[in-house]
Amino acid sequence: MTKSALLVVDMQEDFCPPDGALAVPGGREIASPINKLLAMPFNLKVATRDWHPADHISFDTSNEPPSNKAFKSSTTIANPENTSETTSIPIWPVHCVQKTPGAEIIQEIDISKITRIIDKGRDKRVEMFSSFADAFGNKSNAASFDLAAYLKENGISRVFVAGLAGDYCVLCTAIDARKEGFEVYVVEEAVKSIDSGEKGWGAAKGQFEKAGIRVVSMAGSEIRDVQLSS
Predict the structure, then answer these.
(1) Which runs of consecutive H residues, i.e. helices, occur in the chain?
(2) Which residues are CB-neighbours of 15 under 8 A, at least 6 positions away?
(3) Which residues, in sequence order, are CB contacts of 112 under 8 Å at separation 6+?
(4) C-alpha angle with apex 122: 112 to 208, nearest 5 degrees?
(5) Mean pLDDT of the chain
(6) Whether residue 66 has a cis bond before it, omega within 30° of 0
(7) What is the rounded CA–CA span in Å between residue 211 and residue 180?
(8) Phi, psi of 225 (to 5 degrees)
(9) How far apart, in Å, are the Cα atoms of 45 and each of 29, 87, 182?
């Protein structure tokens, strides 16, 4: 029998209106479809959390002016495992700091249905949009456990992804799940993006298509297959 996992990405207070430090438009609204998914017989249901130290490299407060404007500036980071390798990342407002209210999963999500929570972005030196690896593809203590290994140990072959934000952490998590060899589906009604237009969510869907990832509907046959698997 094919085993499926649901990944609920970053449904945290700081990513949700009205008061989130980095609120995704409509982010709280997808709690209802996500709870419908959580009620289905997925073999594993994993929630992810951004879980940053207070001095994380992506924060505006961790960078010097004039290159510290949230949403506008960027900074260059080095690979902790190979410092000659660098990449540019966006600057964000301080968000999802470990053990703060903004880092908690929103109360609208039925966490009683969640099998396990993975914390990511714990290394202050490096960005980590994906739940599988950091911005350089490293698997390290930036995450609380190796998600790919956990899924494979439990015989998972299909991964369904929902949550925030479609053009960042959902995108990177889905892409990396595919790289790990899983069959990957993104549930459109259960995703919101920072940019819902063609440059954000539209571009993400283009990347999904290139990677062999399908964007599916709650009413689609892929979800029905999960419902019928119980």
Answers:
(1) 31-38, 147-153, 169-179, 203-211, 221-227
(2) 22, 23, 24, 27, 50, 95, 96, 164, 165
(3) none
(4) 75
(5) 96
(6) yes
(7) 12
(8) -60, -40
(9) 20, 32, 15
Catalytic residues: 10, 120, 169
Coil vs helix vs strand at 119: strand
pLDDT tens-digit map of 57-102 = 999 999 999 989 999 999 999 999 999 999 999 999 999 999 999 9
Asked if 131 contacts 118 with a C-beta cutoff of 8 angstroms, the reply is yes
Q: What is the DSSP letter of 176?
A: H
Q: How far apart are CA 125 and CA 58, in angstroms?
A: 9
Q: How far is CA 187 from CA 5, 62, 190, 191, 202, in A?
A: 13, 35, 6, 7, 14
Tokens of 78: 């080095």
Determine the Cα–Cα distance for residues 16 and 38; give it in Å rounded to an integer: 19
Over 80: is that where the pLDDT of 230 sits?
no
- In the block, tokens 């999904």 appear at 208
